[in-house]
């Protein structure tokens, strides 16, 4: 650290070796070898004066490299409350304190202190600075001490007293009693209780007794503690026989009390050795390896929603975040074929100088697993671009919460499943007694009305309506195969709220009456291709 104006020597243990009473004020123009060194210097100063440090702003250049960082007092920011009654509002540390400093990256890779505000609008006490949350942390060895002593049945108060003696007094501990209790509670929530496992097993036995087609499997470790569990009710297994072409595996929904992923994943031993044609998961290498071994013939797709949901975290700090996001969404949602995607992606990378972005590079390498333009050659039941985790959340909404035990969960799962069946029965009954207006004179609309629910019929009608915008031009007939060029306005974008004019090529075999279209745009959504209808 080069801070000539502060007359401080370079010291990797600045915080421990400096006498906090003699720490000088940081000066504008000070040079630091790294952002960590700059923050360490400001933190040492903050401790000597009695306030905490937070990172307020961190700006990046177009290439993703940090260029400007602002640190502030822990009491900066506006106080916010959601309570309607001010009396019941929670305490807040925020009082809009303006104290802080700003550093910027230099050409030589070092950081310069550009500006600093030393005045605070509140009182400070260096003697009590250790109680501030930003300076409290439980080191790994203390965590291990708490875990081992808790397992031995020692009370937390005795554990804390032992740690205080070892540290030479409570004032020397970098954490408080509350921190220790929070850590113990968090650790306990992540562990499975014997009562929960026993209750779950009894539930499975009872369900299988009521219906022999109920399936469950429980996996224990060497100490007979519950490690993994899977079950499927009889109705779900039967439905898999009829609708098991596409399976979605969602590990984003967690029973947070135990931090265990609840995943409705059908596997061979449960589902009659029947392989799905397609499977959708989040972007997980372990899942990818497992699927390639267990389901070698299944097409594996990454959930598009999970990927696009990460865009704000990956690019929010960029100055050109909005145009980058718009260009990325255009490449993903508006590309109708692989060639068009390649061009749009290349424009995105070149325009915003994103060649060194590892996240985008990884996504491009796996583009055949998540870009819609690469997934139109197989039936996905409309699931490859939808928010599957949201449907899972709504399935359990109102039945479980972060503190739900496994004992409660197995009961609430049954209730949620019954509610799901009830809603399906209500939709079928409604569709049986209600008809919607047709949008065309074609007989196939009548067939759809008889076979599907109103919601599914409306999806089909959207496709039929698109047929009206088709402009057909006949081409040559070669060996009994007629060629047609179809110009059509196609809805694009994530919400299908924009249109673009596209031309598709359709071949019709006069002898076999078979039609082949090069777009695969509608079959990928489980619909009938309007171009084939036109022909």
Can you walk me through this structure?
The chain is of the alpha+beta class. Helix content is 38%, strand content 18%. The strands form five sheets. Strands 1-5-4-3-2 form a five-stranded antiparallel sheet, with helices on one face. A four-stranded antiparallel sheet has the order 13-14-15-16. A three-stranded parallel sheet has the order 8-11-12. The chain is globular.
Summarize the structure.
This protein has 18 helices and 16 strands. It is an alpha+beta fold and 535 residues long.
Q: In what order do the strands lie side by side in the largest sheet?
A: 1-5-4-3-2
Q: What characterizes the major β-sheet?
A: 5 strands, antiparallel
Q: Provide the β-strand percentage band.
A: 15-25%
Distance between the termini: 75 Å
Q: Unreliable segments (pLDDT under 50, ≥5 consecutive)?
A: 1-18, 254-258, 520-528
Helix content: 25-40%
Please, what is the average pLDDT?
A: 79
- Number of helices in the DSSP assignment: 18
Provide the gyration radius in Å: 31 Å
Secondary structure layout plus pairing:
Blueprint: H1 14-17, E1 31-32, H2 35-49, E2 53-60, E3 66-73, E4 100-105, E5 111-117, H3 140-151, H4 156-167, H5 177-189, H6 194-210, E6 215-220, E7 226-232, H7 234-243, E8 246-248, E9 254-255, E10 260-261, E11 278-281, H8 285-294, E12 299-302, H9 304-308, H10 311-315, H11 321-333, H12 338-351, H13 358-365, H14 388-396, H15 406-433, H16 443-451, H17 454-467, E13 471-478, E14 481-492, E15 498-509, E16 515-517, H18 530-534
Parallel strand pairs: 8-11, 11-12
Antiparallel strand pairs: 1-5, 2-3, 3-4, 4-5, 6-7, 9-10, 13-14, 14-15, 15-16
């Amino acid at each position: 650290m080069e801070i000539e104006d502060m007359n401080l020597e370079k010291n990797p243990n600045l915080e421990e070796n400096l006498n906090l009473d003699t720490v000088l004020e940081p000066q504008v123009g000070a040079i630091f070898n790294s952002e960590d060194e700059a923050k360490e210097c400001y933190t040492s100063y903050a401790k000597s004066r009695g306030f905490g440090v937070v990172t307020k702003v961190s700006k990046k250049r177009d290439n993703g490299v940090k260029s400007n960082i602002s640190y502030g007092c822990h009491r900066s920011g506006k106080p916010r409350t959601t309570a309607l009654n001010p009396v019941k509002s929670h305490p807040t540390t925020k009082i809009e304190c303006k104290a802080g400093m700003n550093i910027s990256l230099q050409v030589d890779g070092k950081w310069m202190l550009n500006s600093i505000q030393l005045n605070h609008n509140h009182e400070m006490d260096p003697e009590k600075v250790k109680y501030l949350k930003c300076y409290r942390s439980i080191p790994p060895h203390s965590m291990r001490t708490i875990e081992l002593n808790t397992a031995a049945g020692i009370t937390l108060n005795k554990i804390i007293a032992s740690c205080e003696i070892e540290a030479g007094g409570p004032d020397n501990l970098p954490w408080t009693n509350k921190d220790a209790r929070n850590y113990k509670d968090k650790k306990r929530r992540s562990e499975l209780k014997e009562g929960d496992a026993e209750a779950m097993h009894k539930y499975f036995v009872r369900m299988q007794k009521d219906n022999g087609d109920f399936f469950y499997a429980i996996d224990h470790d060497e100490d007979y503690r519950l490690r993994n569990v899977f079950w499927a009710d009889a109705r779900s297994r039967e439905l898999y026989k009829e609708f098991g072409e596409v399976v979605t595996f969602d590990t984003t929904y967690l029973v947070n009390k135990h931090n265990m992923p609840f995943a409705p994943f059908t596997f061979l031993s449960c589902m009659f050795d029947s392989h799905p044609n397609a499977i959708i998961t989040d972007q997980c290498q372990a899942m990818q390896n497992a699927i390639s071994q267990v389901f070698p013939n299944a097409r594996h797709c990454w959930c598009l929603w999970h990927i696009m949901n990460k865009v704000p975290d990956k690019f929010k700090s960029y100055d050109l975040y909005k145009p980058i996001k718009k260009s990325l969404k255009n490449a993903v949602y508006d590309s109708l074929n692989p060639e068009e995607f390649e061009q749009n992606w290349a424009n995105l990378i070149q325009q915003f100088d994103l060649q060194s972005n590892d996240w985008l590079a990884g996504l491009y390498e796996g583009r055949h697993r998540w870009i819609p333009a690469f997934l139109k050659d197989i039936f996905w039941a409309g699931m490859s671009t939808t928010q599957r985790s949201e449907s899972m959340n709504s399935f359990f909404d109102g039945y479980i919460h972060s503190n739900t035990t496994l004992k409660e969960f197995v009961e609430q799962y049954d209730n949620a499943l019954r509610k799901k069946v009830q809603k399906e029965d209500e939709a079928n009954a409604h569709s049986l007694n209600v008809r919607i207006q047709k949008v065309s004179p074609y007989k196939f609309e009548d067939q759809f009305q008889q076979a599907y629910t109103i919601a599914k019929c409306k999806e089909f009608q959207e496709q039929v309506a698109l047929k009206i915008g088709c402009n057909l031009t006949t081409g040559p007939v070669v060996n009994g195969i007629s060629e047609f060029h179809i110009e059509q306005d196609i809805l694009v974008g994530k919400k299908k709220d924009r249109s673009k004019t596209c031309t598709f090529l359709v071949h019709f075999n006069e002898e076999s009456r078979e039609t082949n279209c090069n777009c695969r745009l509608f079959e990928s959504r489980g619909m009938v291709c309007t171009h084939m209808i036109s022909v």
